[in-house]
Amino acid sequence: MQAIMVRELRRSFGAREVLRGIDLDVDYGVIATLLGPNGAGKTTLIRILTTELMPHGGEAYVAGFNVVNQASEVRRRIAVIPQDARPISYMTPHEFVYSYLLLRGLPRNDARKAARDSLEELGLWDFRNTPIYQLSGGMTRRVLVAAVLASNAEVVFLDEPTVGLDAASRRVVWNSLRRYSDSGASIFLTTHYIEEAEQISDIVFLIDSGLIVSRGRPSELVNKLPGKYVVEYPASAGTEPCIRVGSSCFSFVDSLDEVGDGAIRVSPKSLEHYVLVTIRSWGEGNEEG
Ligand SMILES: Nc1ncnc2c1ncn2[C@@H]1O[C@H](COP(=O)(O)OP(=O)(O)OP(=O)(O)O)[C@@H](O)[C@H]1O
């Protein structure tokens, strides 16, 4: 059985079809990342998978249960951080995580231990008794991560879990996500940080205008690009062959001897280049694709 199985999933808002037939599978024990430009349909997909929104077509199963007609079974097995979620600000991190676990049905002693372990892991133990409204934005976000990762949910959904976190905090969260998935659970997250997706994902799904346009391990996707290096020129340079991405164009070369005059940047090829070449509208800074 898979942690997540989605077939031909569709959803519209008014006349606009936002999900146009999504297919994806996520195994247990992995971190899966949904990457895509603003408005691609990421949050809509997460809202359907977490039983918050009804699909208009197709099927989705989470932890083996149908998200429409077995929604309560799904809810029992998942933990979610929705986009823009905030913990209750007058509580302390300890009160928030502990009460979240009690609400999920953990016995008191288990909840106390899990809350402590998770707050320690996310670097929040020293602040456990500080009201959340006195914490920084990044620490507040980590309180939410501490709560869901203290749960024993089989599938965890995180809509942009690391927004606003500094580089060190982001790494703390990455390590916690990895530990959680290593225990056999699955993590399904969205992010705008392509470098983050490359670092932490076992599998990446690229979504554009409501369709999955590419999927694979980050290294597999990067290896679909030719050459070893990416040379970036101004779009006006007219260098051939060159793939236009926004105001730049990218040339893929095997050797630095091939770098022509006017190059603005040379770097090893990466997931970012794959994504920009695959979803050109991202490079245009185009919100709605
Ligand atoms: N409740 C709603 N009513 C009407 N339109 C909606 C609603 N929710 C989402 N949409 C539209 O559906 C499209 C996809 O939105 P969604 O939030 O899923 O995108 P996203 O990929 O998560 O974007 P972002 O990266 O900006 O968070 C957008 O055009 C959005 O305006």
**What compounds are bound to the protein?**
adenosine-5'-triphosphate
Unreliable parts:
none
Mean pLDDT: 92
Shape annotation = globular
- Tell me about the largest β-sheet: 6 strands, mixed
Structural class: alpha/beta
Cα-based radius of gyration, to the nearest Å = 21 Å
Structure annotation, total helices: 10
How does CATH name the architecture of the largest domain?
A: 3-Layer(aba) Sandwich
What do we call the CATH homologous superfamily of the largest domain?
P-loop containing nucleotide triphosphate hydrolases
Q: How many individual β-strands?
A: 14
Strand order of the largest sheet: 6-7-8-3-9-10
Portion in helices: 25-40%
The structural domain count equals 2
Strand percentage lies at: 25-35%
The name of the CATH topology of the largest domain is: Rossmann fold
CATH class of the largest domain: Alpha Beta
- Taken in chain order, the helices and strands follow as EEEHEEHEHHHEHEHEEHEEEEHH
Spatial separation of the terminal alpha carbons: 34 Å
GO molecular function: ATP binding; ATP hydrolysis activity
Family: Belongs to the ABC transporter superfamily.
InterPro entries: AAA+_ATPase, ABC_transporter-like_ATP-bd, ABC_transporter_ATP-binding, P-loop_NTPase
Domain ABC transporter: 4-234
What is the element layout, followed by pairings?
Layout: E1 4-13, E2 16-26, E3 31-35, H1 42-49, E4 57-62, E5 65-66, H2 71-77, E6 78-81, H3 93-103, H4 108-121, H5 137-150, E7 155-159, H6 167-182, E8 186-191, H7 194-200, E9 203-208, E10 211-216, H8 218-222, E11 229-234, E12 243-245, E13 248-253, E14 265-268, H9 271-278, H10 280-283
Helix pairs in contact: 3-4, 3-5, 4-5, 5-6
